[in-house]
Specification:
about 325 residues, alpha/beta, 10 helices, 8-stranded mixed β-sheet, 4-stranded antiparallel β-sheet, about 25% strand
Length: about 325
């Protein structure tokens, strides 16, 4: 399989505090990987670090990130900027982060293309391509949309435009940070459908993080579950979601009404703070199966198609 992005033993943190620990993942052409976890588990920090979008003072402490075999870590901000929005697109949680409010949608598409073509972009061609993308994504009046300002459109429509814009330079990888969390449930499914159609039509790989397990379940081929900065379970989506093995994944699934056969239960306790230095299993304070040996690092169980980090057999 054609590996697009390879992350190996990634650690991301702030000064001497580590937020993302020992994170590894391969994503291939045409693959959708969903990473799920509660707020503050480190999933967005991991995603932003891939293309140099980390928040202030947050940086990669160690590990490798290779895009088609080329190290993204060895690139400076200028080189990363030339890859972002071009070979790798980033979809933010809120479309406001993508758009300039005083620029028409057509100009925003044009600026995105111009930036990556040394200013040689042709307005007419760009308009045509933008229109085609909007049509592909089932916008009923693409010309009207292109002639609008973002504030004249709904949040859901703007997010779908952000998805279309993420494709204008034909990226090979889309990184999506909670792309549906600011939207109503009905609009969420439109954005999910839009992303899946893009994958089917273009073969783009998508790495998406979300706290919404239903959104991840509806589109991902592979699912990773993060807790306390670590991936604690990973594998084929059906395996992880229907035959979950890690107690945290099970608790997360039980807390989702639509996917649970029983009444939803909230997960007792709170996730660990990153300032706490955790020895052993990060979930042990909240885990109903915790025992003395959980104070030591849990070993990986399972195989490459489905693994989990837990002492429990
Ligand atoms: S290692 Fe122990 S505390 Fe951690 S999830 Fe497994 S049983 Fe629970």
């Amino acid at each position: 399989m054609d590996t697009v992005l390879k992350i190996n033993n990634l650690y991301v943190g702030l000064k001497d505090m580590t937020i993302v620990k020992d994170f590894s993942l391969d994503i291939h052409k045409r693959e959708i990987i969903g990473i799920v976890g509660e707020s503050g588990c480190g999933k967005s920090t991991m995603l932003k670090s891939i293309v140099g979008l980390s928040d202030n003072n947050v940086s990669i402490q160690k590990g490798k990130i290779d895009f088609h075999g080329v190290s993204l870590r060895s690139m400076d901000q200028n080189q990363l900027r030339s890859i972002r929005g071009n070979k790798i697109s980033f979809i933010f949680q809120k479309p406001d982060y993508t758009f300039d409010p005083v620029m028409k949608v057509k100009s925003q598409f044009f600026e995105t293309v111009k930036f990556h073509t040394d200013g040689k972009a042709n307005k007419k061609d760009c308009y045509k391509r933008s229109r085609e993308l909007l049509e592909q994504l089932h916008f009923e009046a693409p010309d009207e949309v292109l002639e609008s300002y973002p504030f004249e459109l709904s949040g859901g429509m703007n997010q779908r435009i952000a998805v279309a814009m993420s494709m204008i330079n034909e990226p090979e990888l889309i990184l999506a940070d909670e792309p549906t969390s600011a939207l109503d449930v009905s609009v969420q499914s439109q954005v999910v459908r839009t992303l899946m159609e893009l994958r089917d039509k273009t073969g783009v790989a998508i790495l998406m993080v979300s706290h919404n397990i239903n959104v991840i379940a509806s589109m991902a081929d592979m699912v990773g579950v993060m807790y306390g900065g670590r991936m604690v379970e990973y594998g084929d989506a059906r395996e992880v979601l229907q035959k979950s093995r890690h107690p945290y994944t099970k608790a997360l699934l039980d807390a989702v009404p639509a996917m649970s056969q029983t009444m939803p239960e909230s997960i007792e306790g709170a996730p660990p703070r990153f300032s706490e230095i955790l020895q052993g299993c990060p979930f042990r304070e909240r885990c109903p199966f915790s025992e003395n040996k959980c104070e030591t690092e849990p070993a990986i169980q399972g195989d490459a198609s489905h693994w989990w980090l837990c002492h429990k057999q």
